[in-house]
Amino acid sequence: MPTELEDVQKQTAAANRILTDLGLAVGVTSALGHASMRVPSEPNKFVVKGREYELDALSEMQADDMVVCDTEGFKVGGRPEVTQCSEIKIHSCIYKTQPQVNSVVHVHPRYTVLLSVLGVTIVPMCQEGAPLVRNPLKVYPHVKTIQTDEEGMDLATLMGSDKAILMQGHGAVTTGKDLEESVTAMLQLEEQARMNYLAYSAAGRDYPKIPLELVDAMSNRTPLHELPHFRDVLQGKEPQRGGIWAYRVARVS
């Protein structure tokens, strides 16, 4: 029976492989980025992808490759030859300031990076992830890597309780209650960015977007399990969509 820490390491390694499988860390960015997860019984510790691997790519990550760090960014567990990632302060500062966050993801998605440099605000352009970009995302105005505590706290403070923040010419950070939520948010953010770029290319800077009242109408409605034709089938429970994440884990297992 695996321990809690071993389970968290396994889940975190799978999430990092999923980032590659989803196209969020491929090609020139295949080694760039990291997913992390807080240790449930020790909230001042988290598991994250490190660096200094013999084969350094997110697609190669296994449970034993994960390192354990504290909310000050110090490595407190993991193989001796592996270090914490260079931008460990992204994770540690968010975990330190946002106790409701249990997972953090940072990668360099191409369309998201491109729009941050063009200065184009990512607006709702498709259903997937529309609420995530309903309001303009904040932008950390630096291309540099986040290496110091001051830089990490600057980013964490700017981000606050938001689910996503852009990093100019660098990438993005997403958070969630678990790995599924943080990884899915990054995937949806990049899809919105891709759709925005296509619209920008086709119609110019003033391209149309989905009206905000239609975005709001996605959530301000009767829950599915309360509708007459679903009430008996769902037996009063919210529909479960965990099979999507299970499929992604299975693909990289």
Based on Cα principal axes, name the global outline.
Answer: globular
Q: What does the largest sheet look like?
A: 9 strands, mixed
Rg value: 19 Å
Give the proportion of residues in helices: 25-40%
The portion of residues forming beta strands comes to 15-25%
Mean pLDDT: 97
Count of runs of 4 or more consecutive helical residues = 8
Poorly predicted spans: none
What letter string, H or E per element, gives the SSE order? Answer: HEEEEEHEHEHEEHHHH
**Span of the ends, CA to CA:** 18 Å
Annotation, overall tally of beta strands: 9
Class derived from helix and strand content: alpha+beta
Structure description:
The protein has 253 residues and is an alpha+beta fold. The chain is built from eight helices and nine strands. Helix 3 packs across helix 5. It has helices at residues 4-21, 88-97, 110-118, 149-159, 179-203, 212-216, 228-234, 242-252, and strands at residues 34-39, 42-51, 66-70, 75-77, 83-84, 103-107, 139-140, 164-167, 171-176. 40% of the residues are buried.
Keywords:
253 residues, alpha+beta, 8 helices, 38% helix, 17% strand, globular
Provide a concise account of the structure shown.
38% of the residues lie in helices and 17% in strands. It has 253 residues and is α+β, with helices and mostly antiparallel strands.
